[in-house]
Amino acid sequence: MDAKTPPQLKYAPRAAERPSAAEAEAAVRTLIAYAGDDPDREGLLETPARVAKAYREFYSGYEEDPAAILDRVFDEAGGYDDFVLLRDIPFHSHCEHHMVPFIGKAHIAYLPNGGVVGLSKLARLVDAYARRLQMQERLTQQIADAIEIGLAPHGVAVLIEAEHHCVSMRGARKSGVSTVTTSFKGVFKTDPAERARFLQLVEGRR
Ligand SMILES: Nc1nc2c(ncn2[C@@H]2O[C@H](COP(=O)(O)OP(=O)(O)OP(=O)(O)O)[C@@H](O)[C@H]2O)c(=O)[nH]1
Ligand SMILES: [Zn+2]
């Protein structure tokens, strides 16, 4: 990656080359045995192939180009001059430390600078970054950066709340802990009233 590479792509490394499905399945067999079960028993015979296939779905974000998701901007928004907020965008990700799910919701607002983007594209953007090995902080930052670069809006606000299964199922074993991360850019960073209005709209309905 050189200095000209857009920041959102710097945040999106891909493996130079992937192992084959057969190699991935062999690795899953090893993990089944490591868990203490017999990969040759009938109920588990097809599991390595299923897991390898599921991996392509869990980690499909590596196939996505966030810049391409936001490249269609609608210029005709009828003079709309307030922020656009998508609340409660559900996502499933995997923590890069344990490869265990963290599951939650993203709330995204941006103040358009002329053009607006199709609403579904913001939800797709969340998945493009969530369906990778992630940290919640980085996921939050990447979404905000991609919107800032892709739409050049007057401001961006991203709030993510999630439960990390590596904290609930193992390790500390604390269920129901919600981790909240935020990224504010432009007016949401400089204007406390705009930030407060965003937070009120996100929080006020719980
Ligand atoms: N900051 C941050 N930490 C995370 C995230 N997902 C998982 N973690 C934490 O990453 C840390 C990894 O800590 P280590 O001490 O290297 O690993 P560990 O021995 O498995 O840690 P424990 O989970 O405390 O048992 C743990 O504290 C996890 O809770 C995330 O998205 N952001
Ligand atoms: Zn973890």
Overview of the structural elements:
There is one protein chain. By secondary structure, the protein is an alpha+beta fold. The chain has two domains: 18-58, GTP cyclohydrolase I, N-terminal domain (GTP Cyclohydrolase I, Chain A, domain 1); 67-203, GTP Cyclohydrolase I, domain 2 (2-Layer Sandwich), CATH 3.30.1130. 40% of the residues lie in helices and 23% in strands. The protein contains nine helices and seven strands, in the order ααααββββαβαβαβαα. The protein has helices spanning 7-10, 21-35, 47-58, 66-69, 119-130, 136-151, 165-168, 187-190, 192-203; strands at 73-74, 84-95, 101-111, 116-117, 133-134, 155-164, 179-186. The strands form two sheets. A five-stranded mixed beta sheet has the order 5-2-3-6-7, with helices on both faces. Helix 5 (119-130) packs antiparallel against helix 6. The chain is elongated and about 65 Å long. 28% of the residues are buried. The chain binds guanosine-5'-triphosphate and zinc ion (ZN). Residues 95, 97-98, 100, 164, 166 line the site of zinc ion (ZN).
